[in-house]
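Below is how a single chain appears once it has passed through the pipeline. First comes the sequence as given, then the structure the pipeline wrote out for it. We keep one example in the README because the format questions we get most often are answered faster by looking than by reading.
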Amino acid sequence: HKISDSLRGVVKRVNKEAATMTLPNPVEVPDPNIDDPVLPEPV
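Resulting structure:
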């Protein structure tokens, strides 16, 4: 039953990642500079 054990480990890891994804992430905050980008637009 090593396959089921490894599957359980994968599910645990995915659940942990999903739990961290639910936390507030600064990257997910809308960029206030989206309408006026700091980077120059490609010509």
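The helical segments are 2-21.

See the next section for the split statistics.
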